[in-house]
Amino acid sequence: QVPLVESGGGLVQAGASLRLSCVFSGRTVNIFGMGWFRQAPGKERDFVAAISRNGGDTRYADSAKGRFTISRDNDKKTIYLQMNSLKPEDTAIYYCAASQRPNYFDAVVAPNEYDSWGQGTQVTVSS
């Protein structure tokens, strides 16, 4: 388990932008793929975006393509999710996740391949 702390959520109007951050700590040499998931009220937790250890591979849910960008700064031990053109259907709690499966090159999409999860940050988009 690796401590993960998300921030950057909030209440915005449709069309606005937000940037979420997730700081990781502990034995960071064991952290490889990282990702963002979200859970809306009454729904399951869904994949949003993922990035490989070396940043060279990124994956997005169809709902995020073209609007969201995931990035990471390993020196700052932080990953980001830049969210543009937000829609009311983006309203959810957003969770950061870290995988300790040793792979430098591939992003991780499946939630069961993640070992650590943050507490989440609320994003609310009003119409």
Summarize the structure.
With 127 residues, this protein is mainly β.
The dominant shape is globular
Low-pLDDT stretches are none
Helical segment count: 0
Q: What radius of gyration results from the CA coordinates?
A: 13 Å
Helix and strand composition category: mainly beta
Q: Let me know the number of strands.
A: 11
Main β-sheet description:
7 strands, mixed
Distance between the termini: 38 Å
H and E string:
EEEEEEEEEEE
Strand content: over 45%
The overall pLDDT average reads 95
State the share of residues found in helices, binned by percent.
Answer: under 10%
Description:
With 127 residues, the protein is mainly β. Helices cover 0% and strands 46% of the residues. The strands form 2 sheets. Strands 2, 4, 5, 6, 9, 10 and 11 form a 7-stranded mixed beta sheet that branches. A 4-stranded antiparallel beta sheet has the order 1-3-8-7, with no helix packed on it. A hairpin with a 4-residue loop joins strand 7 and strand 8. The chain is globular and about 40 Å long.
